[in-house]
Amino acid sequence: MEPISPVFYLIPGLGADERVFQSLQLQGEVHILRWLLPQTAEEPLPRYAARLAAAIPINQVCWLVGVSFGGVLALEVAQLRPLSRVVLISSFTGPHELPWAGRLARATGLYRLVPPRLLPRLPRVAKWFFGIENEQDYQLLKDILRDTDPDFTRWAIAQLLQWPGQPITPAIRIHGTTDRLLPTGTRNSQYRLPGGHLIIISQADKISQILNQLAAGDTAEDATELVTDVTQWLG
């Protein structure tokens, strides 16, 4: 019997799209779950996740790969698709992993006062926060920020900061060692790659290797056993 080809569902980060995955080389069937417009400004995250999950057959064994805010959605979608295995890239599992500024914004609601279009107008600030180191990646970041829908951004930030988390959902985690947006994620991750928040772009080759290696396992338990510190595994 020939091995079953793995199926990947990729969820980009806040405001991003399929462009962040353009350098991945995955061995299997690949689908990108593109962002949907919220039905209302207050649509709760579980309901949104259910709409996103509609693209995945309920009996399909698959890998849910979420980047940043996409990781939050991957954890929520996994509640509805029990045969899925979750990989978080530059993401987190609950508010306890937010940096102090995020916890303050969550507690006070100050995030409601920040204009959604502020970051696209400050590309050099965004470059520093996202850990961009070359001009090509910087141009891609500027293009993504420029194309971000402000209403979606406002909704997503509110949902992200109000999210109670899914810390008990099994997940394999990949994180940048110099991530300025979610710095605590490094110590909670099995794979630690050099770079900032956008390692999905800057470390696409290594992330492809990791995902393909994980997908070679027959079960989530087999895949988890393959996890080693990337500094040893990749050299």
UniProtKB/TrEMBL annotation:
Enumerate the InterPro entries for this protein: AB_hydrolase_1, AB_hydrolase_fold
Q: Where do the AB hydrolase-1 domain residues begin and end?
A: 10-206
> Pfam families, per this entry?
Abhydrolase_6
**Per its record, how is this protein called by name?**
AB hydrolase-1 domain-containing protein
